[in-house]
Each structure stands twice: as structure tokens, then as C-alpha cells.
Amino acid sequence: MTTPQEYARHSRYTDPGRYGPLLDALPADIRQLAAVTNGLVVHYRGTGITFTGDRLAEIDSRWTERLLATDQRRFPPSLTAPRPLEQRLVGCCRDVALLTVAALRQHGVPARSRVGFAAYFHEGFHADHVIAEYWDGQRWVLADAQLDQADWPFDTCDIPRGADLSSAPFATAAQVWTAHRRGEVDVDRFGVGPDHPMRGAWFAGNYVLRELAHRRRDELLLWDFWGALVTADADLDLHLVDEIAALLLAADGGDDSAERELAHRYATDPRLNPGGRVRCQSPSGLDALVDLT
After folding, report:
1. Tens digit of each residue's pLDDT (9 = 90 or more) over 109-123
2. Whole-structure pTM value
3. Ordered DSSP codes for 83-112
4. Sign of the torsion angle spanned by Cα atoms 148, 60, 272, 192
5. Distance between CA atoms of 81 and 4, rounded to whole angstroms?
């Protein structure tokens, strides 16, 4: 039987390595913790600041230990001192979620990252997004450490869930894909942004596979590609994505057999599991095979 405690252990991406004491010093309370991790990362394209060269390349850091190493070169010896916006780690939602999950796991709190789409950044458009999810002893709770609570009408550390994508603040990729296949949503309203070409069925389908990877504790970059991930609708394996989306939804509903099937398929199907290498096609300009070991 799959238990939440599986997610209390570090993955190779959340393991802080020699920076474990920095995470030990952070609060385990999600609201206090979110206030810290929120202040560690500046979004690479969301603040009006232009990053180039080595600073932009920080978005490809991938591992918590590497993220913390970069931070500590600028701001030793703790993570709680305020960082000027332009000097923070250059990253995205995935990095805020990763650091939040890493800190929770360091304290023995089961936590994982969830890949999907947020309705709260653009009117009428769902932007791709990664947030944290933690086990409070009774249930899995969604938390977006990237948000300041004062700016939002919902609880950012207990984000409401719902099957109705028109009202839910956040929807998993599996929810979006399933609604798309049922004809319930316009999938072209799901992507990087309303003025960005990366959107639509291929993009949502990829995110189902990314959601699975993160659920199996491979918290990869949003521009890592492997196996069945594609760059065009015509190349998407609809049957595979349908199957994985259905299993993800069932597992979220408490179906332990679906959880076991996801684990088995991820471990044995090279279309789903990146193994030891991905192709990174990054906004930094990097386009290369990257070893994960």
C-alpha cells in the first residue's frame, strides 16, 4: 500500500546535500516556510527584470543543492535574510515549489510537487504552474509559496480543489487533459501565457507526463524532454496520455491500485521515465542532453 510517508524522503532533486542545516533551520509550518521560499526566487520573465548570460542560466539549476549553493554564494549564512529581488535565484514556479518541498521533507513532512495550470495569473487563461502539496496528517493540501497571501482571495496554503475548472484556482494537468478530451474546455486557453505560442493539446498532454514524473519524485524542469514528450499535436500519443491521466485522477481519489499501477508503469516504461538523461530545451538558450546522475 502506498502511504504519504513515501514523500517524506528526499528525491535526488530535493536532497540539499551539504546544505541540509540551512533547511533544518527553516520552520516546518507551511505558512512561515512559504514566506521564506517565496523570497528566494525571482521569476525569470515575470517581474520586468531582464536576465541574461550566467544569471539566466540559473533557471537550469535543477537540483536543490545547486540552487542553495548559488544562493549561498550571495547571501550566507542563512535563508531567512531578505534578498533584493534582482539578486535572488533566477528561476520559476517549479523552483519555489521544489525548495518548499525540500524543506518540508527535511523536517519529515510528506510533500510533493504538483504540475498543472493556475487560473489566477490571467483573466480567462490558465497558465502552466507548479505548486507544493503536503500531507497535514489527514489529507493532501495544496500550497502555492509563490503567492503572497495578502494579494489573493483564497487561502494560498490550502488552495481549494474542485472538478469545475472554471472556478478552481488550480487544476492538475490530468484534470485539464480529461476535461479537454471530454470537450469541456478550450485547451488553447491552457499554456505558458495568453500571448505565448506554447499552449494547446500537445502542451497539456506533455504536462500530464510531467505530472507523473513529479509524482514519482522526479521533479524535473519544465523544459526537460524525454520519452513520449512532444512539441506538436500530431506526435502526441493520445492513448498513453489518456491512460496516465485517468490513473492520476484515480490515485488522487484514493485508489491505491491506481497509485501502484502508476509506480509500475513509470518504473518500466521508457516513454514515461527519463532514466538517466533528458534533453533540456531551455529558455536560457540551452539545447542539450543532460545527465541526471
Report:
1. 999 999 999 999 999
2. 0.97
3. --GGGSEEE-HHHHHHHHHHHHHHTT--EE
4. positive
5. 32
